[in-house]
Design brief:
By secondary structure, the chain is mainly alpha-helical. The protein has a domain of 39 residues. It contains six helices and two strands, in the order αααββααα. The radius of gyration is 26 Å and the shape is elongated. The structure holds zinc ion.
């Protein structure tokens, strides 16, 4: 019985709120921007604690220890917390691309070393062979691994 009253009141409240928003859109948006700006740090702290169990001072200490650089590519970009997905253990701070890359390789050191080996082997691919592939996209051409003789 009480819940019916609450639902009815809530729907009135929603319609009033929608009407108020429509009439005072600029005022509401300005208030939302102010609220978001003041809560940005709070959201960051909550996210660090909830997802990784990290306090902001711990995050800052990790970033300082890494000289505010990505632990893999050493680029000075926004740093994201890298953690072991199964155990939740925080490993370090990475840029977005490196963090996503680890995820795409399922955090497997074997897969990553195979990818590194693959890239190192194919790095010496002759340029004109790569250009041939671009010109003929329907024909499959695989690099034999042997240097192309001209
Ligand atoms: Zn990186």
């Amino acid at each position: 019985m009480i819940s019916r009253v609450r639902i009815r009141d809530r729907s009135k409240c929603r319609s009033y709120s929608a009407t108020y928003r429509a009439k005072n859109l600029a005022k509401v948006r300005a208030a939302n921007r102010r609220y978001a700006a003041t809560c940005k740090d709070k959201r960051r702290i909550t996210k660090l604690m909830m997802r990784y169990g990290l306090r902001p001072d711990q995050y800052d200490a990790m970033a300082k220890a890494q000289s505010y650089l990505c632990a893999i590519c050493n680029k000075s970009l926004k740093l994201y917390v890298d953690h072991h997905k199964a155990s939740g253990v925080v490993r370090g701070l990475l840029c977005r691309d490196c963090n996503l890359g680890l995820g795409y390789f399922k955090e497997s050191p074997d897969a990553l070393s195979c990818a590194a080996k693959y890239l190192a082997e194919r790095h010496e691919m002759p340029l004109h062979e790569a250009q041939t592939r671009k010109r003929e996209p329907n024909q499959l051409a695989f690099w034999s691994g042997e240097p192309v003789k001209e």
